[in-house]
Each structure stands twice: as structure tokens, then as C-alpha cells.
Write a structure and sequence with these properties.
The chain has 299 residues and is of the alpha+beta class. It has helices at 47-54, 78-84, 117-127, 145-154, 228-239; strands at 12-16, 21-28, 31-36, 61-68, 98-107, 110-111, 135-137, 159-164, 177-181, 184-195, 203-212, 215-222, 242-243, 256-258, 263-268, 270-271, 277-278, 281-285. It has three domains: 1-17 and 139-182, Dna Ligase, domain 1 (2-Layer Sandwich); 19-137, DNA ligase/mRNA capping enzyme (D-amino Acid Aminotransferase, Chain A, domain 1, 2-Layer Sandwich), CATH 3.30.470.30; 184-293, Beta Barrel (OB fold (Dihydrolipoamide Acetyltransferase, E2P)), CATH 2.40.50. It starts with 11 loop residues before the first strand and ends in a 14-residue tail after the last strand.
């Protein structure tokens, strides 16, 4: 469950929010399976993790955690993980990926999901005891959640996860686990939109640009954050300033292109390696479309 502020209270612990693929590692007598959220077995795509799981001191287990690739500063890098796997839809193996385990659901024939988190954590710590190994413990961080989030954001991390120590393992958004993300918000010029009959207001995705020196460069799009009312009003406003061709290079994208004079306020979590916005959400329009309100990319 996403929250705007971390919870307060001694019943909460916090962990780093890893930016990777959520996986369940199953060690069984027949071998190791690494199951994605979609139910696919990716043991062959994470061979180092599978090998490390097979060597763990347990007959059977199920670990809940995140596969990540770390950058030079030790931060999880989703773009690097995707690149290691060959991109979206790729079939490559991510041999350099690590697995940060944050819960233990099953151990040596025993279902642990009804146990409180503090007991499951103690058992998890006992089996994730190899420093620097491929399978690592997602460390528990004590202290004030708001301060921890501030530190995480300053370090360029994705955010933090808060968990209630006395709760069993339950699926769904029940409030036992909450996440607080580090979100950036900046102004970007709208250079067009992709129409959609199914989207609110008829806008499937806004095409955005930022400044780089004296020029505008394409930085991706945003397709969430609209209401039916705001989307309809925005589309009418953009249709009134439509132009035949895009004002900047947007690749082979098709859509309705507009004069680059309207600036949108957009929340986003990070940048991709090729300079595009990740997890962007539309907040509204800036009142003044002057150069000072448009995000400037460092050269």
C-alpha cells in the first residue's frame, strides 16, 4: 500500500525499497524454482540466484524478495536489471543479479505465514548468513520513518517499506506493509499527445520535452494522473494549438503534435538510462510557460 508519509510507532520496522523484480524463490527436493508475480519460473534467467538457493542450509524453503542489479554506488538499478535480461521481452540470463530476501514463508516443511513478522525475520536472518553472497538479507532499519525516507531520497534510492512486526504474512493491500516513495516533480513542455478512445478525456499519453542547453529534447510521456474532466479540457486546449509536424524529434511516434508552449507539472520517480521519465504522473499545468519553469537537463 502506497502512503504519502511513513507510519509512526514502535510496531513498525523499515527496509530499503528495492528497484527490481519481485520474486519468490522455492527450494524443493526436485530443485529450485524462481517464480515471478505472473507465475513464470525464471530459474534459468537467474542462474546465480538459483545456485545460491540450492546451497542454502534448508531442505525446503520459500523466500520472498527482490532480484536487483546494483550500480557503482550500491543502489538498485532497474534499468541495469532490464539490460541484463535483454530488455523488455528479452530472454537473456542475468547472472550478475542479486536477491535481497525480506521474508521467509516456508521452511523445512513448515508454513510460516501465520507467524508474526518478527519471528519470521529471526528465522530469515538465521539462514541468510553469508556476507556478500548472491542471496542477501534485506536489512531492517530502525528509527524515525520520516527521517529514514529523507535519507533514502538524498541517497537516490527508490524509497522505504514499512512493516508491522506483529502481523502474519497476508497478500493484498491490507496496510500491514506500506511503501513511501521518493518522488520528484518538475515542469515539462507538452509537444503532443497520443489519442485514445479508452483513456479519460481521450488522451492516452502526453509527449513531453525538457530543455538541454537552448534546445528542447524528448523525455518520454505520461499517461496517468488525468480525470475525465481535466483530460477533456486539456485535449481541447492542445487541439487549439495543433501543428502538422512535431516541433522536436520524437522518433517514430504518431499522435497529435502541438506548439511547445504549454508546460505540465509531472511527478516521476527516476530516469531511465536513455533519458526518459520513469513512473510519471500528470499533476496539472503550470501557469507560466517561461524557460524558468521547464526542467533543465544537465549537459
Amino acid at each position: 500500500m502506497l502512503v504519502s508519509k511513513p507510519p509512526i510507532g514502535s510496531q513498525w520496522i523499515f527496509e530499503v525499497k528495492w528497484d527490481g523484480y519481485r520474486l519468490a524463490v522455492h527450494k524443493e527436493p526436485a530443485g529450485v524454482r524462481i517464480i515471478t508475480r505472473g507465475g513464470h519460473d525464471w530459474a534459468d534467467r537467474f542462474p546465480a540466484i538459483a545456485q545460491a538457493a540450492a546451497a542454502m542450509d534448508a531442505e525446503t524453503l520459500i523466500l520472498d524478495g527482490e532480484a536487483v542489479v546494483l550500480d557503482e554506488q550500491g543502489r538498485s538499478d532497474f534499468g541495469a536489471l532490464q539490460q541484463a535480461l535483454g530488455g523488455r521481452g528479452g530472454k537473456r540470463r542475468a547472472g550478475e543479479a542479486l536477491f535481497y530476501a525480506f521474508d521467509l514463508l516456508y521452511l523445512n516443511g513448515h508454513d510460516l505465514t501465520r507467524m508474526p513478522l518478527h519471528d519470521r525475520r529471526a528465522m530469515l536472518e538465521a539462514i541468510c548468513h553469508v556476507p556478500g553472497g548472491v542471496i542477501r538479507l534485506s536489512e531492517e532499519i530502525g528509527g524515525d520513518g520520516a527521517q529514514l525516507l529523507k535519507v533514502a531520497c538524498n541517497m537516490g534510492l527508490e524509497g522505504i517499506i514499512g512493516k508491522k512486526l506483529d502481523k502474519p504474512y497476508r497478500s493484498g493491500r491490507l496496510g500491514d506493509w506500506v511503501k513511501a516513495k521518493c518522488v520528484q516533480s518538475e515542469g515539462f513542455v507538452i509537444v503532443g499527445y497520443e489519442p485514445s478512445r479508452d483513456a479519460l478525456g481521450g488522451i492516452g499519453r502526453l509527449l513531453l520535452a525538457a530543455r538541454k542547453g537552448d534546445a528542447l529534447v524528448y523525455v518520454g510521456g505520461v499517461g496517468t494522473g488525468f480525470t475525465a474532466r481535466s483530460g477533456t479540457a486539456l485535449r481541447r486546449q492542445l487541439d487549439a494549438i495543433a501543428i502538422p509536424k512535431p516541433a522536436i524529434d520524437v522518433g517514430k511516434r504518431k499522435g497529435v503534435f502541438v506548439k511547445p508552449i504549454v508546460v505540465a507539472e509531472v511527478e516521476f520517480r527516476a530516469w531511465t538510462r536513455d533519458g526518459k521519465l520513469r513512473h510519471a504522473s500528470f499533476k496539472g499545468l503550470r501557469e507560466d510557460a517561461d524557460a524558468a519553469t521547464i526542467y533543465q537537463i544537465k549537459q
